[in-house]
Structures are given as C-alpha cells and as structure tokens.
Design goal:
It is built from 8 helices and 5 strands, in the order E-H-E-H-E-H-E-H-H-E-H-H-H. With about 240 residues, it is α/β, with parallel strands linked by helices.
Length: about 240
C-alpha cells in the first residue's frame, strides 16, 4: 500500500534538506514545493525527466495533487512539502485526510531562520546543491528587532494552529527539528514513520548556505542583543547548532 505524506514547514527551516534526504531513498519520491506560485518543484530524482507533473502548471491544485499520488514510479512512499501560505485548498485537503501522514519540521533557532530568509530574499537563491552556482555572499545583514519578532510570532502562530487542528482530529504527527536532521537516528525514525526500510543510508543533496556565527552574519549584533534582552529570542543569539 502506498504511503502518502506531506512535509509542513515555514521558510528556511531545513525542509529542502529533508526533501533531498528522503528522495535519496530508493522507495521514496519526495517532491519539493509542488505548489510554489513560481513553479512546480519536483523531486530531485525526477527534475530532468520529460513529461509528468512538470507539465501541469495550468492544472487546478487538487488535480495536480491527485496526479502526484498516482505517479509513484514503483516507489512505496510519495510526498511533497507545503510551505506556510502555499495553496490553501491543498493545505485544507491534506490536513483533512487522515490517510496522509504529516511531518512537521521547524527550526529551534529563530534568528538563524530569519537571517537565512533575509539572505535568500536578497540573493534570490533559495536552494543550494553541489552543482549550483555559488551563492554570492551578501555580507553582514542589518537585522531589525521588530521584524525579527514579527516573523518569529508568525511562525509560532502557524505551528500552534497546525498542531491544534491535527490534535482535534486525532491525527498522529512526526515532529522534526532542523538542528537534529543530520543524525542517523532521526533518519531511521522518519523512515519507520513512512513504512519503508529504515536501514537505507540517506544522503542529502543540499549544502548549507549561511555558515558562521550569528555575530559574523549580523552587522548590528550588539545593538540587536540589547533590543532582544528579556525576550524569548535572546538565547537564540548564542545558541550553537549541531550542524
């Protein structure tokens, strides 16, 4: 029986990394953003193959979703990621259907998520692979505390409402955090949830785009530290990630 799944995410929380990990499993097709307004982002393994979902840009969203479940290419599990704000009709459809497994991925360090989103918007580069053109270094960014707090609240409200809705309907969810996504134990946990062989080694195709300490990435770090004093984000300035 086919396992269908959806990855529910906010921007810059490691969802592309997770998609590429899962798509490296021989029994899984994991598409990226099928419902991105700018285009259909297929799984890495299918992007260079002719036909298929890539030719369905004009199809209604639920028609595209139906076709995605049908094109299994012999795999046991098929899924995709759906970012915050993408296709309300698909969002409601997948959340209402209990037979679709839900994976929620978030990023504990909200400041790194914000900086990563700022860099992506500034450079126009949202994905990085070994064959990709190197992302131009945008230099240290000036971060406004008010914008940071607003984005953190937006994401928190999204995840809170999402979990409350799934809890009300008694659905099981797999919760993942970006900071632990490189651990083999977490990979086995995900694969068991998707009912495929947990012994397969998963290989990520993406590469990290925003390396270095937050002090090196934020031009007004000291000022921001003062402005965030006493808020829930103060700790994020100094929290190291395990990747």
């Amino acid at each position: 029986m086919l396992t269908r799944f959806v990855i529910l995410a906010t921007p810059r929380c490691g969802s592309n990394w997770l998609c590429s990990l899962l798509d490296s499993h021989p029994d899984i097709i994991c598409h990226h953003e099928l419902f991105n307004p700018d285009g259909i982002h297929l799984s890495r393994s299918l992007r260079n193959k002719p036909g298929g979902l890539g030719q369905m840009q004009s199809k209604p969203p639920l028609g595209l979703l139906s076709q995605a479940w049908k094109q299994t290419h012999g795999c046991k599990a098929v899924g995709f990621k759906l970012n915050l704000g993408q296709s309300a009709v698909v969002f409601n459809e997948v959340l209402s259907e209990q037979g679709i497994k839900k994976i929620i991925i978030s990023r504990r360090n909200r400041i790194r998520s914000f900086v990563s989103e700022m860099n992506a918007e500034k450079t126009g580069i949202w994905e990085s692979y070994p064959e990709s053109t190197p992302m131009p270094h945008p230099g240290p960014l000036h971060v406004k505390a008010a914008d940071l707090l607003k984005l953190a609240e937006r994401n928190q409200a999204y995840y809170r409402a999402l979990r409350e809705r799934l809890d009300r309907t008694g659905q099981t969810v797999l919760d993942l955090e970006y900071e632990w996504l490189g651990e083999a134990e977490q990979h086995r946990r995900i694969l068991n949830y998707l009912d495929v062989s947990p012994e397969q080694v998963l290989v990520a195709a993406t590469s990290r785009m925003n390396r270095g300490s937050l002090r090196s990435l934020i031009s007004n770090f000291d000022q921001l530290e003062q402005e965030l004093a006493g808020t829930g984000l103060q700790h994020d300035l100094w929290e190291n990630e395990n990747v």
